[in-house]
Amino acid sequence: MTRTVHSRFELRAAELHPSVDDPALHSMTFLNEVSHRYPDAISLAAGRPVESFFELDSVHRYLDVFCQHLRDDLGYSEEEVRRTIFQYGRTKGVLHHLIARNLAVDENIDADPESVVVTVGCQEALYLCLRALRSDDQDVVLAVSPTYVGLAGAARLADMRVLPVREAGGIDFDDLFSVLRHARGRGLRPRALYVIPDFANPSGVNMTVEDKRRLLDVAAQQDFLVLEDNPYGLFSDTDERPPTLKALDTRNQVVYLGTLAKSALPGVRIGYAVADQEVVTAHGTRTLFADELAKIKSMVTVNTSPIAQAIAGGRLLEHGCSLVRANARETEHYRVNRRHLLNGLADRFRRGDPDAAGVSWNSPTGGFFVVVTVPFAADDALLERSARVHGVLWTPMHHFYLGDGGLNQLRLSCAALPPEQVDLGLDRLHALVTESLTASRKGAKHQC
Amino acid sequence: MTRTVHSRFELRAAELHPSVDDPALHSMTFLNEVSHRYPDAISLAAGRPVESFFELDSVHRYLDVFCQHLRDDLGYSEEEVRRTIFQYGRTKGVLHHLIARNLAVDENIDADPESVVVTVGCQEALYLCLRALRSDDQDVVLAVSPTYVGLAGAARLADMRVLPVREAGGIDFDDLFSVLRHARGRGLRPRALYVIPDFANPSGVNMTVEDKRRLLDVAAQQDFLVLEDNPYGLFSDTDERPPTLKALDTRNQVVYLGTLAKSALPGVRIGYAVADQEVVTAHGTRTLFADELAKIKSMVTVNTSPIAQAIAGGRLLEHGCSLVRANARETEHYRVNRRHLLNGLADRFRRGDPDAAGVSWNSPTGGFFVVVTVPFAADDALLERSARVHGVLWTPMHHFYLGDGGLNQLRLSCAALPPEQVDLGLDRLHALVTESLTASRKGAKHQC
């Protein structure tokens, strides 16, 4: 079984785990490549948070504030402070009590700090959940589609199949029942449903409170967990935000996935899971699902950088653990930008204008994203042309669909841009759409 | 398929991924529990680095130094500096060029910065490698046993089997050939061998340069990668350190796994892989193995906290990217402690003393660990008694074996303790050993 000794060792891609060839990855790679090839194009594509409020000095301040909290509020000695910040530490993290306090203050969620697992971004939390829930290849996860691309990636790493459920402006219950029935008919076990109920990525859509309650009832009847991901719920047009699924969860059916990437700093890479479900062992003993997730975490990243946690913790502490208060400026920025984007679309694509026939968009009341529907294919080729000829980037929606869909849709983000850039971006998008409409009309005439 | 709706949702442990029931995990849990139950016991068990040199102010300084490096050496604008530190960033990291420089300065390794993937500790690097190399269940990884418990954990998460290879003071080549032959005979594909060649955890053992060269030849002939983990190589008694496997690697067969946990700060959770192998796709195009690992990383943790990377980077920059220089004090501390431990063992267990018959130990010339062999079972029950009655903690070696072995061995670590605590710990260990020898002699008489 020896082979010719090459001068250099080579690997064959076909002999690597199939996840490295995942369509979701190719999507991300393609989108990154386009934005790299056209660095001067205005990006209505990027989902990153606004940067203009970042201050280097704040890092020093946050770290000091957190250390002072350890001394003053938790009674730590200097030695204990240094050990907490610098040494290997608790697998579930050192920020759990502040996250629990934040969830109480901002979301009316009553979370036991012991049920909180601090993770390296929300992506790790998602991976831990799927890895834990996939005991064999009959276990599957459902996801409202279109969805966050990281869901498909995490599932692929856990070798877990994802079954799409139609969105229909929230969640299509008929389709949910149908997917559950078909899955069980094929001997599969639906373990969880992944959903972003508030100002979703990519759709901007919200589930109604009524639908949230109904989803919890269905999950209870049909015995699956709900993985609620909530990166954008904070950034709402109205100060009266609707309750999250977790706030409505009286039966421990919801694993709540949070991130401080959008609400504190992306650069700390801090996310978390609230996993308060009880796990019953063969011996009848009970643990928390959070502790099972922590076991898996100990094999992936051991623990989350306590220095990074401390910096995020300082930001929480400076605002009484309220991210609503901490993000007053950011939320206002996103509100202004979103309205600017929606008004800008209305100005450029007027109802009744034959040059805008078939162009429509939704009107999210929060979050980072707006979806535009067009009467032609908004595919990768059009994005490439848009970047090259018109100097504007957006995201083809089909990348977010599990399976088919979204070919006539674009996702626009206005999170990171100043308003004048949004205007310029929309002017360029308008030129692209007009050109494409003309081309498709010509094509239609040709066909006649 | 609906079931009775419980008032609270419960999960069954048997329906979770088997990794949460992994023996390696139970080992860690048991060891942590014992040390928690007996907080006043002196710990010759913990493998953490020395804490006395940690300074909170250094974090601020390191961050500033790294930002200045971005401005002065890389020509970044203030906006680019802030974006690098705070925003989502490069999947392979922002510290790659400094790690490459460090490897050149300290290890005579010529690493292309593009082949470096910065990870959340070395554990993530290990997981990425195993996940990538496990394309189906015929793919297995070999590991010199006893070994680091995190190897078994990472393999379990990737659903990859681990085949142990005997250590025999380095690596037992006859056993290696036998394991390779048997594996191939059963249709398995050995993809890689995991080894800590210098001052290994747990054994403290070093591979000779001759054995390192031979291992590289075997790997080339038999077509497997070598995963070289090197957390302790820096902490050597002699300033002339032997070359790493990677420094001897002329055929890109070695993936070098590094960590800044022991040499910079555990609390930054920064590790890395140098993966300079070429990967050939079905279309004949070529990528670096590092880029395939980065794809997987994007699905696990997206990217490593750039703030944590910046802090680690500041420490590197302050010492011209030499961790040898940065760790002058630490290395001296470990040298003094190791000699103190070895001399203390020799003082307490004298050759020819009938009260020490059958007690021996190895004499590592670097690293954190020393292994003591005793003529009785050094198992979990004895550790519990040791903690409760004698007030001293150590690690039963059997926890580090893949399969059987190590039942008569203890791992001692002297990394974190001051010398007077080492003395006290050894006095207590001596009392335990004397008691156990007496008990086993009585047991032997009983049997007669």
Briefly summarize what is shown.
Two copies of one chain form a homodimer. By secondary structure, chain A is α/β, with parallel strands linked by helices.
Q: Features of this protein?
A:
homodimer, 448 residues, alpha/beta, Aspartate Aminotransferase, domain 1, Aspartate Aminotransferase, domain 2, 2 domains, 4-stranded antiparallel β-sheet, 15 helices, globular, transaminase activity (chains A, B), aminotransferase (chains A, B), transferase (chains A, B), PLP-dependent aminotransferase family protein (chains A, B)
Mind explaining what this structure looks like?
Chains A, B: This is PLP-dependent aminotransferase family protein. The structure is a homodimer of 448-residue chains. Chain A has 448 residues and is of the alpha/beta class. Chain A is 44% helix and 15% strand. Chain A is built from 15 helices and 16 strands. In chain A, the strands form four sheets. A seven-stranded mixed beta sheet of chain A has the order 3-9-8-7-6-4-5, sandwiched between helices. A four-stranded antiparallel beta sheet of chain A has the order 12-13-16-15, with helices on one face. A two-stranded parallel sheet of chain A has the order 2-14. At the A-B interface, β1, α2, α3, α5 and α6 of A face β1, α2, α3, α5 and α6 of B.
